[in-house]
Amino acid sequence: ADMVHLGRYLRIDDNPILEEAAARQERMLPVFALDPSERRGRAQEAFLMSALAQMQQELRARGSDLLVVHEPPPAEVADRYTSPMQMIPDEDLPFDAAKMPKTYTPFRQEIERHGLRYTRPRDPLQTLPPIPEGVTCPTLPMPTTPTAEEHWHQYRERRLPDTYKQTRNGLLHADDSSRLSPWLAWGCISPRRVADDLRVYEERYGANEGTYWLWFELLWRDFFSLRAEHRGVLLDNVNVDLSDVGHPFVNAGLRELTETGFMSNRMRQIVASYCIYEANIPWQVGAAYFAEHLIDHDPASNIGNWKYIAGTGADPRGGRRFNIEKQREMYDADGAYLQRWGGR
Asked: Where are the domains of the chain?
C-alpha cells in the first residue's frame, strides 16, 4: 500500500505522482519496476540505470529512497511505465482528447488559436515521507551521465536554442539539437519545466525561430502521446539484427544507434524509410529494434514516427519514401557522418 511506482516520472520537480502520494501517506516507498522480459541495448540500459541512480540521490536528499525491483510493473500502473507526462495534459486541452485533430498541423493550430503553450509546472518537493520501517533500498551504482538540469542549463547558457531550427537536422554534432530527448523520455525532466524555462529564456534574450521550434517539437511529443498509437501495439521482443540492411549510409545510422543509443531525428527518418520501402522490413520490426536500443525510447513517439513514415499513422500524405542518395547529399555532403560511423 505504501509503494509508489514512479515509471517515467524520475524527478523531484513537477511530479504529480510523488506529490499526491506524499500528501496522502505517512510512509511511502518509491519503486521502479525493471521488467526483465524487456530487451535493452547496452546504451539504453546504462542511461536508465544512471537516471535511476540520480533519482535515488534526489530522494535520499529529501528523506526518502528508491527501490528497484526486477519484475514487470503491476497492470494498474503499466501506463506510467510507457507514457511520460505531456506538456499540456488532457484536461487542459481546448478540445476533447478523443476528438482531437488527426494530423499535427491542425492540432497545433487549434492549440495556438487558444493561446496555449504549456501547463504551468508544479514546484519541486522539498521533503518526502520516510520509507516504511524495515525496508532497505540497495545503493545503485554511481550515475554516469549529467543530470537533465545540468544538460539543459548548459544548452541555454551557450545560447543554442537560438540556432536550433537551423541546426536540428544535422547528423553528427551533439549541439545540432537539444539532445534533451533521453531525459524527457524517462521523465528525468518535465516538458512543462522545459517550456517554462524557454519562456524565461525568451523574456531574457527575445523569442526567435529557434525557441519557437523547440516548443513546436515538444508539442509533437504531446501529439503522439495523445494519439496513443502505441496502445495495444505489442512489438515482438524478438532478437532482430539490423546491423546490415544493404546500404552504407543507412548501416552507418544503425551502427551509431547500436553503439550510442542515439540517432538524429533526420537519420531516424532516413533509416525508417529505407527499411520499409527498400529493404521491405515491416515497420514493427524496425520499431522494435529502435525500442531496444534508443536511450530516448518513448513508445508513443517511436511507434508514431514509424507509422508516420509507413503511411499508416498521422501523415496527411500517406507515407514518406525518402530518396536516400538525395538525403545523403543534403545532410552528409562532405561524407563526415559516413566516415565517422563507417557503414559497411
From this structure: 3-81, 90-121+147-227, 248-341
